[in-house]
Amino acid sequence: MTSRTKKKLYKVFVGVSIPVLCVGITFSLFHTSLMDKLFGSNIFSTLDKKAYDTYLNVRGTRPHTNNLVVVTIDEATLNELLYPIPRDQFGALFAIMESYGAKAIGVDYFFPKVRSNESTDLEQSQFLQYSNMSHNVIHAIGPFIPEDDKSLDSSKIIWEAYPILHPHGVPKKDNYKFFPISSFVDERPFDSLAKLSVGVGHVAMLPDSIDGITRKVPFFVEYGGDYYPTLGGALALYSLNIDIKTLEVFQSENGLLLKGIGIEIPLDDHGMLSIDYVGETKFFKEISMYDVLHAFADNDTATLSMFTNASVIVGPTARSIGDLGPTPISEKSPNCYIHANVYDQIVTKHFIVYPKLSFEIILTLLLALSIGLVSMLTSLKWSSVYFTVVMIAYFFGVSEVFISQGLVISFPQAIISFFLTYAGAVGYISVTEGKQKSEIKNMFTKYVDASVVEKLIDNPEMLKLGGEEKEITVLFSDIKGSTTIAEMLGPQKTVTLINQYLTDMTNIVLENGGTLDKYIGDSIMAFWGAPLPDANHAYHACETTLYMQRKLKTMHPKWEAEGTPLIYQRVGLNTGRAIVGNVGSTNKFNYTVMGDTINLGSRVEGVNKKYGTYICITEFTNKKVEDKVIVRELDFIVVVGKTKPVRIYELMALATDKTDDAMMNFREKYLVALELYKKREFNSAISKLQDALQIRSDDMATEMYIKRSKEYIANPPADDWNGVYVFTEK
Predict the structure, then answer these.
(1) Residue 308 CA to chain centroid, in angstroms?
(2) Could you give the CA distance from residue 509 to residue 450 in angstroms, rounded to a whole number?
(3) Which domain covers residue 141, as residue numbers?
(4) Domain-terminating residue out of 298, 326, 348
């Protein structure tokens, strides 16, 4: 086994060990009592609750029922009817809604015993009379649940309400032992009203002890050996014609399961129902209590028809009454909307469920293992990308699972596991491999591009002779008239000017993904497509070349003001296969490119001066970018040292650039003339070429074709002439 293989296996071992340790620590923090002992509460489990809130808000509105009406006791109702609202008004409300077809009415409002006086006796009598006309009303009860409810025994229970509520409760069942126990019911309908009710429902919320948000409600509360459902649940079951006394509780893999004919309601181990909030509170049909009474007085049947075959929840929304509390989707929500959401999720069968702990551990561990291994076996750049992708994908993945299935997979404990794993792996690599990376960086940043250095750091095995064949685009640039410039400025000023020029041009190359190969005097050699893959290397080379030309133009005014000769740059581009790698001796080598592609690129840079152009590209480069750039064909030539002809083009602009009309008109006339030239219609070609010269009078390529055309008119070419021009000098 080679040392390299041993090193890789050791990295795999570390890449497995770190996530196993991190996942173990994280899940211990979330699922043990250690945090409760240290801080009095588990702050990590609170993160899970906040993640649940996030799921709800990210999802937005879910499908919901359209047969629920919330009748609000709002500020307008209090202003019109005064507070406390006369009870006979409530009785009239119940009778009106039932007479217009309401299936069931849940009342989140308490009607305790009242003082015996003339006014209240009349109200009470009318209230009971109306209530006796309403045969589908479920009234609220307010049980008190002590914190240590499991320790209650019969001697600690206040039995005052028991005789009245007992007929509405579910008799004690062995498998109902999971639900919270109430020591007394201090808020309930008075005795005569309770007897007229079809049921009662508790309104105990049990908000979170840390942030006060109501995320769950106990489905049943035990009082005196009987079980009473939550108000929203009682209303839903009655609307579905399900007798609550027939429900059975079963232990499931993920908690409890409340089952009846045609219904299954998932609960947690403590009998709590997680509320799958529909969304903002205004998604249910809503009308104020006063508006219902007013509509009846006005015989407004259109408004009152909203109760036909509907279930109704009556409850206070006025802030002055104060029956408000925070929910995952609202800082202050009337509690009657919580009962509405409970009702809705039961009738629409939208429930929140939780996976088995073992499933979450396995899922988190598998992803953490992948992060650990990728971090140990790849570069920091790619491991950070993978880590980020996993984090984002996990969040959106579990969010989508929640949206589609209501399954709450823990986001915080997974993300903490992933972060610890990534931090641990990166920290390990930094300590163990930092020295080697530092040595490589110090050695190679002196003479190769930073991107090459990074690749060498990630792949030290590249530090050897030889290379690989890749498709690249190579750039050669040279300064027009550099000898004349040197003569005008002298050695010192020439060096200063050339250094400034090379610095600006090199920065443009590097900023646009190019790899600097070398300087040859004032010439630059660079390439695209290696060492980092680049599917658009030809386009990026063309783009960079045009940026270089534009940069030079911006420098000209400064040089003119200084009296410095202006620099003009000629560039040649070619695309093809080349050998890319480290070339040199065993003691010193350079990351470079070699091959016929490189030689041709060098030659086409030199032909610019024959055509008076500044950017010349070969047909091989043009083929890669022809739909992305604006070019004009220059010639079909055989360069010095070659035997096969190649078509060359002048690169004029990017297709996305704003071009002036003169340039495009010139190009159009020139290309028409060139086609005539190829067809041996030399007289017509000359005419069109002269038209082109009217736009660009100093174009050498146009003048060259006029001269050639005249020569061919005088001495027609052979029959096998194909327009090839053979260069005899560089």
Answers:
(1) 44
(2) 12
(3) 64-245+266-348
(4) 348
